[in-house]
């Protein structure tokens, strides 16, 4: 570690429990039905909510996250494809301090299929949030070795470091993962 802190003592939360203050941008009603529909994981309620038009996929919840963030966190491949089919954004950062993108949220829960869809849609494999974390670093932080192996196989750069100077291998070692899977 580059500081006297361990990785766990630094706040690198990428999921919905982030500690940033809520965003009120005046454009997005925080209780729009699209968010609950996506969280349910069922396509029909999402299709119903999308009857308002494809712009519904550009809305932000009260913490600044897009519908794509929630589809990726939940591993909802069919919903993510529906968002893509309707030209919804799938690579926008959250409007908050961390600035995580949907691919980071997919990595929190180890959703390889979601990450694959996002990469096929043109999302950068090495995109960083405001703390310098790449999808590979997030996968390592949350102990998802299968996803980390997938990302490395697709060309993720292992040498990228976060804002504190730690790379994915540092995080894997800290989390006690089998380092032979990282070679």
From TrEMBL:
**Positions of ANK repeats:** 63-95, 98-130, 131-163
Q: Where is the composition biased (Basic and acidic residues)?
A: 14-27
> EC class of this enzyme?
transferase
> Is the Acyltransferase keyword given for this protein?
yes
| Keyword terms of this UniProt record | Acyltransferase, ANK repeat, Repeat, Transferase
What Enzyme Commission number(s) appear in the record? 2.3.1.225
Provide an example Pfam family for this protein: Ank_4
Per UniProt, what is one GO molecular function of this protein? protein-cysteine S-palmitoyltransferase activity
Q: Which InterPro entries match?
A: Ank_Repeat/CDKN_Inhibitor, Ankyrin_rpt, Ankyrin_rpt-contain_sf
| Region described as Disordered: spans on this chain | 1-31
The protein, known as? ZDHHC13_17
User: Which species is this record about?
Assistant: Mytilus edulis
Lineage of this protein's species? Eukaryota, Metazoa, Spiralia, Lophotrochozoa, Mollusca
